[in-house]
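Hey L., structure's done. Input below.
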Amino acid sequence: MDYRYTLANERTVLAYLRTALALDAAALAVAHFFTVGPAWLTATLASLLALAGLYSGIAAIVRFRRVQAAMDRGAPRPPAWVPVVLRLTLGLCSVLALVLVLW
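Output:
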């Protein structure tokens, strides 16, 4: 096995972890600085962002291990569901943020 694939897998996990950190920072910023609109909507948005960050962090490690095991076996890469879930979650967060901004 070519070591470049393992390094690429490590870069991917680091990208997921950077995304998790950014989502957690966004959740804290929303919880602390958003003062418009109802409190429950702000709390929902912050919670969704924090959950997306948690999911991204956990999924990074799980995906890294699954891809590494597939590479060791010479099997094809497993499908990537993390970007799909994050896209849907961030789409919902964008709608909630738009409601808050237009409130």
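The mean pLDDT is 93. The CA atoms of residues 13 and 22 lie 14 Å apart.

-- N.
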